[in-house]
Amino acid sequence: MSGGDACSCLEREKPPIKREWVVWKLRFNTSAFNGYKVTPSDYSTVHCQVCGKVWRTKAAYVDELFCDRPENSRYWKQTEGAIA
Ligand SMILES: [Zn+2]
User: Fold this and answer.
1) How many domains does the chain have?
2) Distance from Cα 23 to the centre of ligand 1, integer Å
3) I need a surface site. Which of 28, 41, 78, 83 has the fewest CB within 10 A?
4) Residue 56: what pLDDT?
5) 40-76 b/e with 16+ CB inside 10 Å = b?
6) Which residues lie near ion ligand 1 (Cβ < 5 Å)?
């Protein structure tokens, strides 16, 4: 898995909820190794819309960020609910 460099622009100075960061993959990944299937992960993919950086993180702030597609966040919340 390639992590990528995390954003280090001015967005980083703001509280997470105000950052122009968008979650592309909330606690899952898709890679060539598993045929691009959705696979649960501790890490989320985050994109900074200001500087364009894309990185993966398991920091708690991902829960305060917007997702680019609603299903990206709902998917795993529904799954967790079903297991619980
Ligand atoms: Zn940035």
Assistant:
1) 1
2) 13
3) 83
4) 95
5) ebebbbbbbeeeebbbbbeeeebeebebbeeebbebb
6) 7, 9, 11, 48, 50-51
3: CA distance to ligand 1 center in Å? 15
Ligand 1 centroid distance, CA of 40 (Å)? 26
Per the structure, the complete domain to which residue 47 belongs is given by 10-83
Please indicate, yes or no, if residue 2 is contained in any of the structural domains: no
Taking alpha carbons only, the member of 82, 78, 71 closest to residue 25 is: 71
CA 19 to ligand 1 center in whole angstroms:
9
Per-residue pLDDT band for 77 (boundaries 50, 70, 90) equals very low
Q: Would you state the pLDDT for residue 71?
A: 61
